[in-house]
Please model this.
Amino acid sequence: MAKQYDVVVLGAGPGGYVAAIRAAQLGLKTAIVEKQWWGGVCLAVGCIPSKALLHNAYLAHLLTHRAAEFGFHVEGLRADYAVAFQRSRMVAEGRMKGVNFLMRKNQIDQYEGWGVFDGPHALNVELNAGGSERLEAANVIIATGASARLLPGTKVGRRVITYLEQILSEHVPRDIIIIGAGAIGVEFAYVLNAYGANVTLLEYEPRIVPLEDEEVSKELDRQYRKLGITVITSARVRTVEENEEEAVVIYEQDGKEHRLTAEYALQAVGWAPREDTYGLASTGVQLTPKGWIQVDGRMATTVPGVYAIGDATGLVQLAHVASAQGILAAEAIAGRPTRALDYLMMPRCTYCHPQIASFGYTEKQAREAGFEVKVARFPWVANGKANGLGETAGFLKLVTEAKYGEILGAHLIGPDVTELLPELTLAQQYEMTAAEIGHNVHAHPTLSEALMDLAHLAEGMSINL
Ligand code: NAD
Model:
């Protein structure tokens, strides 16, 4: 006999598990179905373990290249990546168990297995423990994520890999070609470089992290070359193949063909819609021309009672956006008033080194959108705390509208800048101006006071510059 629910969520990533919690909090009888990764790619093999590896990489970099600067005399240093890897797995597994705990705490029924839709309001779950369950629900939330996109005509093999094979490996390649200098590409480039791999970063666009403000790309490019990473831009990869010993990458640049070989080639060229092995077609939801699930501002699909959130929608594919969409979908189902997300203003964080954090319009986009633009730029070298940390590379950049001071976007590159966005995004959301940020007293010495300096600068009355 089928089990009846108000809401069934398919997929327990940062979108799905958050949606389930909010649905349960709003009094809806809720179930969640997940095959393997409680917390999704993010907790299991993405954001969380990579942050553990990135921190290890930072320490490895400090000890290898900057020990003397801090007065450490390290002889015979051996950086053991296998330990870094094991630590990353421990961190990920702890977080995943945390999701199971949260489900129990909120009285959400957990089904561990593979769910397949049988029409828009029913799911058959092949349980990992054996047997199956049929779940029926007035509302379903599809939170099935996405898959790593592979370049046409290529496949994953022994030498050609994606983020997944690398993050689950305790091996540091002798040399590696990373295809794509988006978030995954630049984060892995830093980790593997710090542990001694010879890294080549190949990017199709004329600059690395091409979605960021141009000045941010330029700064990261400079820092990565200093680390010894080979950066090749305006390079269109045509084929990625492998033989017993190596991966072979052919790319085109300035109309000429080039050939590179390395122990591994890692494809990091974006996400693709997940293959429909979960009965999506039977729900009848409409897809976008690129194959993502079409949703409105309440995360509702074209079929009543069917919602979709997270990477599966192809909107801004970031964990925190998925979580926000999950809350939105649950509140919409519960009949609460909702407010659509403003995707342009979502915070974006890349954990390369130096870190990048941004939201809103880049300077170029703001000009193209017709705003009269004012730009303030504050270098980390003028911030006391950053000097104390020995991390003075990079800057903060604020893009405002010239006449009324409306915040249009911010682009930060430097120490722990991923922690600095909320003040700015909150200010933007509640229509504060740079003047109001400047009047908000910031503790000294902090990295966050650079935001106050940036705001003063935007007001044309800089204190520390
Ligand atoms: P991405 O879209 O961020 O970057 C892919 C890059 O590959 C782009 O710069 C693109 O120009 C380049 N590219 C595409 N085709 C190419 C070709 N033929 N030759 C050379 N370069 C080519 O995708 P990603 O880095 O694979 O990450 C996947 C998703 O995961 C993204 O949505 C990303 O935002 C997300 N993610 C986010 C974080 C974070 O927020 N810190 C970390 C990891 C992943």
Q: What stands out?
A: The radius of gyration is 23 Å.
